[in-house]
Amino acid sequence: MSAYGVTDRPGPPAPAPPRDRGLGTSYRKHWAKRFGVAPQLPVSRAEMEALGWDACDIVLVTGDAYVDHPSFGMALIGRLLEAQGFRVGILAQPRWQSAEDFARLGPPRLFFGVTGGNMDSMVNRYTSDRRIRSNDAYTPEGAPHARPDRCVLVYAQRCREAFPEVPIVLGGIEASLRRVAHYDYWSDKVRRSVLLDAKADLLVYGNGERAVVAIAHRLAAGEPVGALTNLRGTAFVRGALPADWTVIDATRVDEPGERAAPGVASALGAEGARSVLRLPSYEQVRDDRVLYAHASRTLHRETNPGNARALVQAHGDRLLWLNPPPLPLTTKEMDGVYGLPYSRRPHLSYGQAKIPAFEMIQHSVTIMRGCFGGCSFCSITEHEGRVIQSRSEASILREIEAIRDSSPAFTGVISDLGGPTANMYRLGCKDPAIEASCRRPSCVYPVICKNLDTDHSALIGLYRKARALPGVKKVLVASGLRYDLAVRSPEYVRELAAHHVGGYLKIAPEHTEAGPLSKMMKPGIGSYDRFKELFDRYSQQAGKEQYLIPYFIAAHPGTTDEDMLALALWLKRNGFRADQVQAFLPSPMASATAMYHSGKDPLHPVRRASPEVSVPKSLKQRRLHKAFLRYHDPENWPLLREALVRLGRADLIGKAKHCLVPLRQPPGTGNAGEGRRRTPGATRFKTQHTGLPVTPGPPVTRGRGRGRS
User: Fold this and answer.
1) How far apart are CA 343 and CA 659, in angstroms?
2) What is the CB-side half-sphere exposure of residue 704 using CA atoms within 13 A?
3) How far apart are CA 489 and CA 478, in angstroms?
4) Which residues contact 131 (CB under 8 A, 6 or more apart)?
5) How far apart are CA 645 and CA 595, in angstroms?
6) Closest CA to 603 of 376, 283, 393
């Protein structure tokens, strides 16, 4: 067994865990359950000794500050393992310049669990213009530079240096989105699977609760880490393909259908349960952009846990093996995970220091996971899956009461009742058999699927019960709203507008033009218009002055300069003046990232003759696209004037009402930087809608009359 986890032991197909029992109920609790529940998981030897521990069974290493709250991954996994009887320690934002800090808690008996935190570390540290950010919302006082670049790699290497014999398991969103060969925007190249570069033993992707519980119990029972090859939602490295698996060759383009490897029978029918899909190798996708787009499409078609097959991708003489995605958690399992004994506050060692991400979410409640929207720029589906996993009403209401009764800062306002989206609670396919066999990347694009249940009554009932709880003055909805679903339920829009909006509601049409929208897999602007009409009507009926905050993306693949001009004119007609804009950030593994890198569209079958996708890549063009979103900022006017002349729209320069920018430049503005300087008081640019958690805070927009937001 090597440090890479190479093994030739094939293992049986990944078994489906019981669906009617809670997480871990098929295992006997580990003997260390006798130590009971820790007030907070220990971060030091002194805390371990106070709990009576001589060692940790598992040490979780994370790039975030330790906040004992279910919105923070290390707390959720740590408390889940504690509930299984394991002693769990936390190394939060350890000093990575040497292995010394990684030995602080001693060697864990079972494994190190390594995660970058709630965000990919490169997205956390850099803007879409590849500039280093000045703050980190997951660090005390927002201090920057508390984690290294690609911290999963660095942390895993330091763990290996500290204790070479201890297995290393990678998890979290950084590992999940880098589980195969992937394009990395910050180095502008295709990188190997993070599992190989980190030299770890195992990688857990997606919702990892079941896999992590199984790993802990099986290692505790004496199984070697190299034997853990049959767990859903895991990836490992092996030396050769097992002889009893059928290999489906998906390494070529320009060939219809799927071909079995030479000399191997078809994998369809009875043999399908033991078939593995061979992706183009790392070396192939590194050197061939069309093959990269083809591999991306192939991978995205294998994300439904009901029909996904195992995948294999060669990296040199080693084979990366990915088992099928994890099965969605049941409502009972979700309730169990969110009902664990979290202290719901940062670790006491931080004292009075503020952690911005915690300040934003401390009074919010997650009601569901997953998203079936399938937006190409978003990574939620790749990480959480497209099947909605919802908590019960009783579990959600208990958490609201816990916030009310335990948080000193609670003023009676629940800041958000949502999740990846605000209004997919208990929505899903009407037919489980259809759901299990479907390979569509989206249930709502290009139109809402006829098999999708869009009934919002369960969510309406939850809202009413939540705001009726004693001591709760207001329940806000701050998660992104899927407005094309909301218009299917006018009663939901009425409920939302009357009771759950604090003056502004964020909404994400992303663009107005068909070209970029087709590459984003977003509905046309007509859906936004229909929602706005309902929202305005019901806000007026409730006697409230409320506005929508629209989010738009600049420089997305498929967007031309003409598209951005059309969007700017739409913004002007509707009176929007955005103080905060967003540019496309190619996050690992997203379909839009494959478009950005390859120039091909993986939303459709990829051929060498497939049309090229227009991709705004140059820094000047990306700045121009952002400038169109802030057409009102004098700093952007020189760049916009130049573009308008080039586009043959010099008629939009001047004083007339229809003009986009004036002819004359105010003194002291629009100098060097082509729009890089900010006017006093302008909000700093933040990247949003990458599918990853971001620094909190909605964009501030200003406007006039009925169209402002």
Assistant:
1) 56
2) 4
3) 19
4) none
5) 29
6) 376
Say if CB 214 and CB 234 are below 8 A apart.
no
458 backbone dihedrals φ, ψ, rounded to 5°: -65, -40
Fold for domain 1-231? Rossmann fold (3.40.50)
Average pLDDT, the chain: 89
pLDDT, tens digit, 9 for 90 and up, residues 568-593:
999 999 999 887 788 999 999 999 99
Can you say whether residue 323 is alpha, beta or left, with left for phi > 0 and alpha for psi between -120 and 50 degrees?
A: beta
User: Residue length, the chain?
Assistant: 709
Exposed / middle / buried, residue 193 (Cβ in 10 Å: 0-12, 13-18, 19+):
buried
182 versus 670: which is more confidently predicted?
182
DSSP 689: -
Q: Which residue has the tokens 């207001």?
A: 474
pLDDT computed for residue 530 by the predictor: 97
Strand stretches in 467-543, DSSP E: 474-475, 504-510
Average the pLDDT over each of 12-26, 92-106, 162-176 and give the range with the smallest value.
12-26
How confident is the model over 426-455, as pLDDT tens digits?
999 999 999 999 999 999 999 999 999 999
Query: Rounded to 5 degrees, what are φ and ψ at 101?
Result: -70, -25
Residue type, 262: P
Q: What is the dihedral of CA 395, 397, 400, 401, to 10 degrees?
A: -100
Q: How far apart are CA 13 and CA 273, in angstroms?
A: 7
Compute the distance between CA of residue 315 and CA of residue 285 in angstroms, rounded to an integer.
11
pLDDT at 14: 40
Determine contact, residues 108/164, Cβ cutoff 8 Å: no
DSSP string, 233-300: TEEEEESS--TTSEEEE---SSS-S-EEPTT----SGGGGGGEEEEPPPHHHHHH-HHHHHHHHHHHH
pTM to 2 decimals?
Answer: 0.90
DSSP state of 694: -
Q: Please, what's the b/e burial string for 383-400 (b: 16 or more CB within 10 A of its CB; e: otherwise)?
A: bbbbbbbbbbbebbbbbb
Where does CATH 3.40.50.2300 sit in the chain? 1-231
The yes-or-no verdict on residue 271 having pLDDT over 50 is no
Please tell me the distance from the alpha carbon of residue 224 to that of residue 336, in angstroms, as a whole number.
29
